[in-house]
Design goal:
The protein is of the alpha+beta class and 748 residues long. It is 28% helix and 23% strand. Its cofactor is Ca(2+).
Length: 748
Amino acid sequence: MIHSFKTLKIPFLLLLGFCIHLTSLAQKSGIDNLKYVDLRVGNVGQLLEPTRPTIQLPNQMIRMYPERKDYLDDQISSFPLIVVSHRLGQAFSIKPSVNPVTAAGWKQKLAYDHDLEVTQPWYYSTYLVDDEVTVEFTPGKKTGIFRFEFPEKASKSLLFNLYNEGEGSWKFISGNEIVATEIYHGDIPVYLYGIFSENGKAGILQNEKISPEQTIKGKNAKAWISFPDNKNGKIELKYAVSYISPEQAKKNFETELKSTGFEELKKKGEKAWSDAINQIQVEGGTEGQKRSFYSSLYRTYERMVDISEDNQYYSGFDKKIHQSNRPFYVDDWTWDTYLAHHPLRIILNPAQEEDMLNSFVSMYDQSGWIPTFPVLFGDHACMNGFHSSVTFLDGYRKGLRNFDISKAYSGMYKNATEATMLPWRNGPKCELDDIYRTKGFFPALRKDEKETVKLVDPFEKRQAVAVTLGGSYDDWAVGELAKDLGKKEDYKTFSARALNYKNLWSSEKNMFMPKDSKGAWIPIDPKFDGGMGGREFYDENNGYTYKWQVQHDISGLIGLMGGKKQFENNLDQLYREDLGRSKYEFWAKFPDATGPVGQYSMGNEPSFHIPYLYNFTDAPWKTQKRIRFLLDVWFKDNIFGIPGDEDGGGMTAFVVFSSMGFYPITPGRPEYTIGSPVFEKVSIALPNGKQFKVIANHSSVVNKYIQSAKFDGKVLNVPTFTHDQLVAGGTLELEMGPKPNKNWGLGK
């Protein structure tokens, strides 16, 4: 029924005010999505590393989480003032004490109550049940504030320590001012400047004895400060950190904190996270699915981090301080992040991704190599492959131009022609690399052969099949960028090398199998051979996972397997194939292969694209089935809700994409393959002012199968769409139902 304003007898201004109020509520309603972010998700690893409840601003330098084993641990050993690098160390330890200062105080652990702990991306609070102390923290970009509330009539002290067992120093300038240095990773000084809210009596611990000295320098340097009684028992430490100089630490303090208090900094942090999290709005789905989705989205902002300070930054790639008006980002593990993490950022914040790619180019300038695992101290040689090459190609083909693509290509070419491909090694090539570049495969040792190449890591081994497959993809990326840049001869060379994966395909075993340096097959059990993690031939996973590591040439892989139907049958069998032994025996050798379904391992990055491969067969509905099952089984919204090593957003970016209903199956190709959205509507606010929408009518836990599809109102009968369609603000509309439509998605 339609009423006029007059008929309703509602004053116009009152109605107008009400409408404005509703509009305001609608605009602010996205803030509610922050309630779905739960930092505890995945805080207990099934076998591997747990996620850490990192409190920070999105992609910013200051990160904090309480030092403890995992969520099951009911004691905290200390609170770091900064997590320097994801799982690679922290600096400057602080903890409160209610007892008179003694040497034993630094060894004491702090018991807490899980149910009294508050962990939000921008705010942390815990209650230390034995000491009756409340600890609070809120982060800035290069700064942070700790607040401690002590019980009445208790001693009020703060104990300071170092984490890295290297050289460091503490110095009290006055009753409420402190400066410190901690040497990270052997030669990188981290500088601290801080101010306490109260004047106190300070000192040091030297030779296990309490001293009133105001300065200490050396290994394991420890300091303390005690405060007299005050009205509310609260003590604050406002501080700033720098990788450049003590003076810069103080300048960072003055820039961010001089006139900013705890509540204001906390409010700014909440606003920053609200802007990030609410860029994606969802409707429908269960409360658990929303918690899993938004908690995963939060995780993708832990890394990379901007370490620029006042238009300058310290680089571990040449151990120098550089001037730059662009952010410099570190802390990335491209073996994990090239698959979904970088592609997600290209959609949500392409300008930031350009700055990250520009940082990669700067690292090449400074070190002579394009990095693989760029962290504060340089390129952390880890895993295998030069997947930063794929990341450059993916960004370039999705329209990113604000970095030197010619220099990036130069570095990619150098890595592909001069660098060693050996896992966990940086630097020039060796004799094994020459075999790959001449014979087209990386050679493995036979079971009874001893290693003769000194450069090979004694634990990580050669990983010969994994290196060959990864190298083929990386070479494809170099070749494709060469083509885009008009370098015809390079394209010819690298497009041929992109097919090297075929040299290790055994039609007899229906598997990628190792060869020795002479090109002879090495007979192995691809389920179980290869030592710890199968590293002699594969890497962290067995041959059943690496059977599918050809994202860049899926049609070629289908051909090797004998066509679409056999490809589909092999995919089916992957999820049904028995381990061939007990789980404890299998996991004793393959602890990274967690989240198993048959031989499929949801808990490791090389598996992410595999369930989407059904979209390249005549059964796309099986992708819909598998994705929904995997999300539901392995990514619950609880402390066990991440099946493997989450890698600071590397894994949870998969959850973000898959929950929205699409996935970048081949980074380097500007297109997406379609899965099964868990929500009825997804809206992404794009930086260009447009909205990309996925509408999945009637989607539910049961209605997971696509019945029909449209893109921008036109019938879509292929399970794919392009990046250009996405950034143009397109709308993918799906009709969902409880049973598969086996004819959908079979168009050309």
